[in-house]
Design a protein that fits this description.
Elements (H helix, E strand, L loop, with lengths): L3 E6 L10 H10 L2 E6 L7 H10 L3 E5 L13 H8 L4 E10 L9 E2 L4 E2 H19 L3 E6 L2 H10 L7 E3 L6 H9 L2 E5 L9 H9 L5 E3 L21 H12 L3 H15 L6
Parallel strand pairs: 1-2, 2-3, 3-4, 4-7, 7-8, 8-9, 9-10
Antiparallel strand pairs: 5-6
């Protein structure tokens, strides 16, 4: 069976964590050989690391999502120390998300920092940690593409590289990220009926920079849209890209799997 990799999922989230063995079996049944379980808080990191230690085909990341406002705020050195584990293959997910943020209008009286500035400083810490640890970045950006790219340039993110996960931006943003040594990952959104512009982007990403993901339990692809997403459904993303690029599903699986292990060089098959 064709080997697929889900390059971004959250197996520790409800409801996947309540039926994990079934989720993993369905992934195997659909040819998903590996998956990367991505951290969004430091508090959840130990359970993600444990999942990766218990299952040889699951890898882990460490980081704090830009929208997280509770929990511990890591320093660069803390992130580097936590990433010093053979099952941890990436730093993130990190980046900027202004969609749910009030920005600098939402002033935090406790620490005197606006939310956008908090996100930007956290993002810089993650980039510095990635460079110091030698492990690539998983970047989330929403309604913040220009600030995301600016900080990536200012901090030299291209020196370590990484992936723009769950990509929904324009061709220009994709080109800028590619120029910074980043891969582009497409989720189930690319299958949505109203995602024609995104499909145009997906046609043009170089074959050696293409990744696929679920971002499960969110963003289930057609024909499961609106239901709980899971790694098994990454096959539908692969099928969509195969159709767009006039390739076989096997070819998309082969090249995205190869790309995954090229980018995440600490991951072993």
């Amino acid at each position: 069976m064709t080997l697929l990799v889900d390059s971004h999922c959250h197996l520790n989230f409800d409801p996947l964590n309540t039926c994990l063995e079934d989720v993993l079996q369905r992934a195997r049944d659909n040819g998903v050989g590996h998956m990367l379980c991505v951290a969004v808080t430091l508090e959840a990191y130990p359970e993600i690391r444990q999942l990766a230690q218990q299952h040889a085909h699951i890898f882990a990341s460490v980081g704090v999502h830009p929208n997280e406002t509770e929990g511990h705020e890591p320093s660069v050195d803390e992130l580097v120390d936590l990433a010093d584990n053979p099952r941890v293959v990436a730093i993130g997910e990190t980046g900027l998300d202004y969609f749910r943020s009030q920005g600098d209008l939402s002033y935090d009286q406790t620490n005197g920092v606006g939310r956008h500035l908090q996100q930007q400083e956290r993002f810089r810490h993650h980039i510095r940690a990635a460079k110091k640890s030698g492990k690539p970045l998983i970047i989330h950006t929403r309604d913040a593409a220009q600030d995301t790219l600016r900080i990536m340039r200012e901090e030299g993110a291209g020196e370590i590289g990484g992936v723009m996960h769950c990509f929904t931006e324009s061709q220009d943003v994709a080109r800028a990220a590619l120029d910074l040594n980043f891969y582009i990952s497409f989720s189930g959104i690319v299958t949505f009926r109203n995602a024609e512009a995104l499909r145009d982007v997906a046609k043009n990403v170089p074959a050696d920079r293409l990744l696929i993901e679920t971002d499960s339990p969110y963003l289930a692809p057609v024909p499961y849209r609106g239901k709980t997403n899971e790694p098994a459904f990454v096959r539908h993303v692969a099928e969509c890209l195969a159709n767009l690029r006039q390739l076989s599903v096997e070819s998309i699986a082969d090249l995205t799997t190869r790309n995954f292990f090229t980018l995440f060089k600490h991951a072993t098959r």
